[in-house]
Amino acid sequence: MGLGMKASAALGRWVRGGASNPRAALMKRAQAAKAERDWRGAAEMYRQALELRDAFGPRVQLGHMLKEAGELEAAETEYVRALAMKPTDADLHLQMGHFYFVKGDPDESVRFYRKAVELAPGDPGLLEALRTGERRAADAPFAQSLETAMKAMAVGRWREAEAGFQILEAAGRRDYLNLHGHALKEQGRLDEAIRLYRDYASHVAKEGGAAVYEAEVQLAQALQLVGRFSEAAVRYSTARDLKMAREGWTGSVDELLEEIRNCLKRVHPSLDAGFIR
Q: One matching Pfam family, short form (predicted)?
């Protein structure tokens, strides 16, 4: 006896639904495992889903899961397969740049970051990733000195940190001038610290990005400590302009404006700094 129309429709819905869509079910289980940080479990679900039907997104996700699980050779294989499917995908090149850094190949990492920027020129996130990657590649020969300096900074051993940063500075690695400045500032050597902060601000100004804003704020704070309030106000003003340009506003609480007003009040005690906006 045949099925009635309603029964046939219900059966069709069941067939088209999750009960007969094992790939969708596997993808859902993969996402759940990923949320639980079960990287190997998620990888297995993505692998089974790909056996049913290959696709770019799950292939990339399988690479991610294997990378997180520490299975770097297998992850590389999956990334390369995904790249063959979409060789002009900028985000995949970015992710492969991250992968090769984790794998310990900073030069290959930079190659992928550069290609990502070529594919999506002007993307600020990709440009920042490229700058970071290039810095890491240049730092590779000095990894031991950098690690020593950073560990010393973390526990307040300022002279030891200073010695490590001196090695980097002597080698032309100017990306750590600000940290060298911090180590000197904590020792009370403020004039030397200001020189390094100023040099760092000039260095990062050529590249742009968030580092320029941070450099201006650090320099302004150091100038305040030695009572050079006019110069500090100028640097805070520059930082405020940079923040406005990058974010479109200065925040619900304009802390930089308050610092500018405080500096100007120290220079001109009778000044009504409230008019400054």
A: TPR_11
Q: What's the CATH fold of domain 143-267?
A: 1.25.40
Angle formed at CA 192 by CA 189 and CA 195, multiple of 5 degrees: 145
* 26 three-class SS: helix
Domain boundaries, the chain: 22-140, 143-267
Q: What is the CA radius of gyration of the chain?
A: 27
Give the model's pLDDT for residue 1. Answer: 42
Give residues with Cβ within 8 angstroms of 31, minimum separation 6: 42
What's the rounded Cα separation, in Å, for the pair 161 and 151? 8
Residue with tokens 């007003």: 261
Structure tokens at 22: 């094992």
pLDDT at 271: 75
One-letter identity of residue 49: A
Query: What would the pLDDT profile of 211-220 be if each residue is shown by its tens digit?
Result: 899 999 999 9
CB under 8 Å to 144, separation ≥6 — which residues? none
List the structure tokens of 48. 């089974």
Domain 22-140 superfamily per CATH: Tetratricopeptide repeat domain (1.25.40.10)
